[in-house]
């Protein structure tokens, strides 16, 4: 395998750092105890940075990850409750305070460019070092299907350590050996004497014990983990009791509505204020453009502040604004794809992965070629973007739904001109995130507005139209694929050359003020790390910059690279005269995990009913492997997906119920994009505005999803995103079997 310059530099930097400083060779710092005491109320005492115990036997657990529908506020408390031997209904949760022990140590390691089949010291050292860097930076982020992967050990260790302290306290008080004290259902027992006590009765005594290295349960001893526990937030969401960011109501709150430039990069030439200021309830008009100045694609904005949201929105609509359209008025979707095609025509792409000799094979064999494309996509989360902010007495208070509390605090501090210690954050559940709430634009705007409101809190709410038109979009990509077959009809060589925007440099510049040097792994993830045993491979990508703001979208680069790869594999099967499943199976002989998942999905699907066809796709991402079989029909040019059989190996299944829910969610999300999702640009303006022209799947269009969880010996892996990538190619492959037409562009259309 070829070691690219990027890999050499990254590995060399890590190794040099270890040799010169010695830091990289040291173990990561502990994640059990925070720098400051766990803030607890009443008579509760903290046993470590994650667990507090009250005399009434109630346990409070710090949760550092956002709940955005994935069920993590059910799954994470299960880890502590299992190791603590406590019923789950005795656990209450609070959002974790700011401390580096709560940092996400997985997301940085996910950016490394190594192929999963590449073992060795260099990848291991790089992952080790980046995990340490993430721990030191202390960035708390919910994304990349990383929450359970990151917290599987720390939260179990927190529960086990708390249990050990309770056992030690009871053994000391009862004057018995530690081995004779057992725990069950929130109680301590000494069977020989018949004594028992609740955890709560030993809370204070346990807090004074010196914690020993925690001993974790073996999986065979689990009583809670691995069971389908109902979601803890289901009742509140069903009754309306749940409070999202948009439901924040601090005393004296005002409301703000926005007007933003219709063109990308537009600015304000002038505003006529009199008519808006004369409207009922209107208090002020504020130019908040400076909050986003310098950001890629940022549009200027003007906010109207009023006593009610209706008053603010009506006055914002009445504002007479003269817009300076800016430098991008000629920008169009056709221009974007034209630039991508030119980049590939001129060979501007950079190599990301190579093995064997693709060029040599292609010189002496018949080459099958195809061109694929995917559009820009918006996130379209159900809860509109919003943030409530208050700036008073040199402090900032935020009430917001966010995937990045660390960056939210930093953005608020920057705009308000205060230190991060003077920012108080109240985190709320998210009404959908999908990567959009990894951004801080709405937070910066809200703080800029609140800064002018004389200490009163103000809630900013974007309209659905603003949410769609001013999103940070999933990149559009053009891909050219070429492959050959050997005499036995097996794929011998494989080349993917793609062009499109690179989102990571934009994200880092926008949210962290950092310059990104190197190749963006998200452009080729799912393409440069595929499991198929093809001896000759070449994966390259050309970065084509534009003014369109780009951001992380659920499953990121996997979302389009799976479509390219799995669709073209079916093309190769057709060229070879082989069954698509058998073609894949022949290239997975050294990948039993992928093979088992593929077989499970195909076996579960059985045979397609008359008038329908099955399409298959397999894809691995975020540590998990997913295979999907889509059962599809076509009538009057319309594609209908009736059933989806979804097999997943996500390591140990912490809560099978949540896994099934996430597979259903991923299928619906991915199908929405596959069948109707498309953002287009003309005259420098996004053309879509709402669900009328940017549709999401309706209830009567949703297929039945059958989830098959494949037993695995791996630790828990990602669940929220891995179900998205395979659905588009599975449907496209089924359409080909029905119609003989190969659809190489998304959204899939027969008309």
Task: Explain how this protein is built.
The protein has 751 residues and is an alpha+beta fold. It folds into 3 domains: 45-104 and 139-233, 2-Layer Sandwich (Aldehyde Oxidoreductase, domain 4), CATH 3.30.365; 245-327 and 385-461, Aldehyde oxidase/xanthine dehydrogenase, molybdopterin binding domain (Aldehyde Oxidoreductase, domain 4, 2-Layer Sandwich); 333-377 and 473-739, Aldehyde oxidase/xanthine dehydrogenase, molybdopterin binding domain (Aldehyde Oxidoreductase, domain 4), CATH 3.30.365.10. The chain has a 7-stranded mixed β-sheet with strand order 10-11-8-18-15-16-17. A 5-stranded mixed β-sheet has the order 13-21-20-19-14. A hairpin with a 2-residue loop joins strand 22 and strand 23 (624-635). Helix 15 runs parallel beside helix 19. The radius of gyration is 27 Å and the shape is globular. One of its GO terms (molecular function) is oxidoreductase activity. This is Isoquinoline 1-oxidoreductase beta subunit. Residues 239-327 form the Aldehyde oxidase/xanthine dehydrogenase a/b hammerhead domain.
């Amino acid at each position: 395998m070829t070691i690219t310059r990027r890999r050499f530099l990254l590995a060399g930097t890590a190794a040099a750092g270890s040799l010169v400083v010695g830091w990289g060779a040291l173990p990561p710092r502990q994640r059990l105890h925070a720098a400051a005491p766990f803030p607890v109320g009443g008579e509760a005492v903290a046993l470590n940075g994650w667990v507090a115990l009250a005399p009434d036997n109630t346990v409070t657990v710090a949760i550092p990850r956002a709940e955005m529908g994935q069920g993590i506020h059910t799954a994470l408390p299960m880890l502590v409750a299992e190791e603590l031997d406590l019923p789950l209904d005795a656990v209450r949760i609070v959002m974790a305070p700011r401390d580096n022990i709560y940092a996400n140590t997985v997301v940085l390691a996910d950016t490394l460019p190594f192929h999963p089949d590449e073992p060795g010291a260099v990848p291991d050292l790089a992952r080790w070092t980046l995990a340490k860097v993430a721990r030191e930076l202390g960035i708390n982020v919910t994304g990349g299907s990383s929450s359970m992967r990151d917290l599987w050990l720390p939260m179990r260790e927190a529960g086990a350590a708390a249990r050990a302290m309770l056992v030690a306290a009871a053994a000391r008080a009862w004057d018995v050996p530690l081995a004779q004290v057992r725990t069950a259902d929130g109680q301590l027992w000494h069977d020989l004497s018949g004594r028992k006590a609740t955890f709560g009765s030993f809370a204070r005594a346990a807090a004074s014990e010196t914690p020993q290295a925690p001993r974790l349960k073996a999986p065979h001893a689990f009583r809670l983990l691995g069971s389908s526990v109902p979601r803890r937030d289901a009742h509140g969401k069903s009754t309306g009791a749940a409070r999202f960011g948009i439901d924040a109501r601090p005393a004296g709150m005002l409301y703000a509505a926005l007007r933003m430039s219709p063109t990308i990069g537009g600015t304000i030439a002038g505003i006529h204020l009199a008519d808006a200021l004369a409207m009922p309830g209107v208090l002020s008009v504020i130019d908040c453009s400076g909050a986003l100045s310098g950001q890629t694609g940022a549009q200027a904005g003007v906010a109207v502040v009023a006593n009610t949201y209706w008053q603010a929105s009506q006055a914002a609509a009445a504002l007479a604004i003269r817009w300076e359209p800016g430098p991008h008025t000629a920008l169009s979707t056709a221009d974007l794809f034209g630039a991508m095609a030119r980049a590939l025509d001129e060979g501007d792409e950079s190599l990301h992965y190579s093995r064997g000799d693709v060029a040599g094979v292609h010189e002496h064999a018949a080459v099958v070629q195809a061109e694929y494309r995917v559009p820009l996509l918006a996130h379209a989360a159900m809860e509109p973007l919003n943030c409530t902010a208050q700036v008073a007495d040199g402090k900032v208070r935020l009430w917001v739904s966010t995937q990045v509390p660390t960056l939210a605090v930093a953005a608020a501090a920057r705009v308000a001109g205060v230190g991060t210690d003077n920012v108080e954050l109240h985190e709320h559940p998210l009404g959908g995130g999908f990567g959009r709430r990894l951004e801080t634009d709405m937070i910066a705007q809200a703080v800029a507005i609140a800064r002018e409101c004389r200490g009163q809190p103000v809630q900013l709410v974007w309209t659905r139209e603003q949410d769609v038109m001013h999103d940070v979009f999933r990149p559009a990509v053009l891909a050219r694929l070429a492959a050959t077959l050997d005499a036995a009809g097996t794929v011998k060589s494989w080349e993917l050359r793609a062009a499109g925007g690179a989102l990571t440099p934009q994200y880092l510049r926008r949210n962290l003020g950092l310059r990104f040097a190197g190749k963006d792994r998200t452009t080729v993830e799912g393409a440069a790390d595929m499991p198929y045993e093809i001896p000759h491979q070449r994966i390259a990508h050309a970065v084509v910059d534009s003014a369109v703001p780009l951001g992380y979208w659920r499953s990121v680069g996997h979302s389009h690279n799976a479509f390219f790869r799995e669709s073209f594999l079916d093309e190769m099967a057709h060229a070879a005269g082989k069954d698509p499943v058998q073609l894949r199976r022949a290239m997975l002989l050294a990948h039993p995990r992928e093979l088992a998942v593929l077989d499970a999905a195909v076996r579960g699907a059985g045979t397609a009913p008359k008038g329908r066809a099955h399409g298959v796709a397999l894809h691995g991402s975020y540590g998990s492997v997913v295979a999907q079989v889509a059962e599809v029909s076509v009538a009057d040019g319309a594609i209908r997906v009736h059933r989806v059989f979804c097999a997943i190996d996500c390591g140990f299944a912490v809560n099978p119920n949540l896994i099934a829910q996430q597979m259903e969610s991923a299928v619906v999300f991915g199908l929405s994009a596959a069948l109707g999702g498309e953002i287009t640009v003309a005259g420098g303006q996004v053309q879509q505005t709402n669900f009328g022209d940017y549709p999401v799947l309706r209830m009567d269009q949703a297929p039945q999803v059958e989830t098959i969880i494949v037993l695995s010996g791996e630790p828990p892996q990602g669940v929220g995103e891995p179900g998205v990538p395979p659905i588009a190619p599975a449907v496209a492959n089924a359409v080909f079997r029905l119609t003989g037409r190969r659809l190489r562009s998304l959204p899939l259309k027969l008309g």
